[in-house]
């Protein structure tokens, strides 16, 4: 089957790395606008703003952003350790408040599409109509997702976050893992339609548009 993709949200292209594209008004700066959007903002304190992810990939999906403008993981240093620990703490509190039943992960995409460092707080049901592509799935279920704890540990040990960008890109292209039922809470039971599409995907190795 021919590859079929729709651009339902910013950052769907692997070419869209933050950096040169981050011009004034560019979509990759959208998180900054969302930090001030009362519809999306959940909470704020002296260090961070918490917003709902505009295209949630699970029942609970939030982003925690510092007020301080930090473009990406490469810009982080030991000076940011108190901030990163605070972000993680706020994430854990938010997860506990959101659901006692669901598991959560807290972390960063190795090569984010959106500018301004942000930590994902995401429940592991992946029960969302916005989760449409292999890239979405792989970005939250492979090593492309860097756990906050590991990011903090790396900075404590070496003073920086090392990201192998070419390997990260490959992780998004890798075939979907077959044992996703084991790694994900109730994936098959809550998402039968998507689960079926994943099976098709495993056969064809094509990009599927799950919105159809
Ligand atoms: P990433 O940059 O790969 O860490 O992911 C960016 C996240 O931001 C994705 O989960 C998107 O669904 C989400 N997103 C994209 N645009 C916006 C926006 N304007 N406001 C809030 N969330 C957004």
From TrEMBL:
<dbReference type="InterPro" id="IPR036265">
    <property type="entry name" value="HIT-like_sf"/>
</dbReference>
<dbReference type="InterPro" id="IPR011146">
    <property type="entry name" value="HIT-like"/>
</dbReference>
<protein>
    <submittedName>
        <fullName>Aprataxin-like isoform X1</fullName>
    </submittedName>
</protein>
<feature type="short sequence motif" description="Histidine triad motif">
    <location>
        <begin position="116"/>
        <end position="120"/>
    </location>
</feature>
<dbReference type="Pfam" id="PF11969">
    <property type="entry name" value="DcpS_C"/>
</dbReference>
<dbReference type="InterPro" id="IPR019808">
    <property type="entry name" value="Histidine_triad_CS"/>
</dbReference>
<feature type="region of interest" description="Disordered">
    <location>
        <begin position="1"/>
        <end position="21"/>
    </location>
</feature>
<feature type="domain" description="HIT">
    <location>
        <begin position="28"/>
        <end position="131"/>
    </location>
</feature>
């Amino acid at each position: 089957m021919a590859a079929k993709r729709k651009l339902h949200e910013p950052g769907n292209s692997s070419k869209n790395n933050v950096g040169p594209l981050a011009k004034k008004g560019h979509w990759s700066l959208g998180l900054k606008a969302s930090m001030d959007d009362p519809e999306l903002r959940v909470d704020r304190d002296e260090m961070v703003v918490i917003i709902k992810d505009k295209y949630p990939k699970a029942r609970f999906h939030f982003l925690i952003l510092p007020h301080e403008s930090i473009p990406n993981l490469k810009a982080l240093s030991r000076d940011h350790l108190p901030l990163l620990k605070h972000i993680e703490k706020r994430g854990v509190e938010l997860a506990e408040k959101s659901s006692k039943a669901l598991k959560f992960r807290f972390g960063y995409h190795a090569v984010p599409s959106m500018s301004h460092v942000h930590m994902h707080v995401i429940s592991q049901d992946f029960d969302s109509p916005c989760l449409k592509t292999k890239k979405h799935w792989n970005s939250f279920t492979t090593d492309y997702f860097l756990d906050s704890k590991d990011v903090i540990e790396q900075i404590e040990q070496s003073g920086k976050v090392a990201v192998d960008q070419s390997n990260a890109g490959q992780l998004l292209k890798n075939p979907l893992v077959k044992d996703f039922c084991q790694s994900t809470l109730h994936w098959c039971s809550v998402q039968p339609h998507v689960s079926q599409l994943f099976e098709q995907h495993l056969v064809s190795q094509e990009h599927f548009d799950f919105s159809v």
